Amino acid sequence: MTESGASVSSASTSSVSSVSASTIPARPPRARRTRRGGYVGAIVVNAIMLYLINVWPGWAVLPFLTDDLRVVLPWINASILTSIVVNVGYLVADPRWVRALGSIVTGVVGLVATVRMWQVFPFDFAGSAID
């Protein structure tokens, strides 16, 4: 029994390892192309937002924003630029650890921008229909 049990055990172990190593599918190229399209889309949308906030029509056209937004604007720009840079990095290489690191970086910068926004609170809703 031990002889046949050992041979079955070693045979099954070797066949399992060879089968599992050869049957683990690589990430499909379609999934990578889809992610790359998402990265390009994120870059384009963030670049448009950066332009709209800073150039035309600019943040000043919104009546509920006060001049105090100038204090927060660098952090908002940093958050958008960080997202653009990280997504460009993803186009170059997007293994899971790089995406995780990029998420941490964009999350930290976004959190700083949000906290700064709460501290300054550059909004005035008194003259509008928004309560």
Report what the structure shows.
- There is one protein chain.
- This protein has helices at about 1-25, 30-55, 70-90, 95-120.
- It has about 130 residues and is mostly helical.
- It is built from four helices and no strands.
- The N and C termini lie far apart (about 80 Å).
Question: What's the topology here?
Answer:
Blueprint: H1 2-23, H2 29-54, H3 69-92, H4 96-120
Short account of what is shown:
The protein has 131 residues and is mostly helical.
**Main β-sheet: number of strands, strand sense, barrel status?**
none
Order of helices and strands: HHHH
The chain-level structural class is mainly alpha
- How many individual helices? 4
Strand content: under 5%
The proportion of residues forming helix, as a percent range, comes to over 70%
Termini, distance in Å? 81 Å
Key structural traits:
mainly alpha, 131 residues, single chain
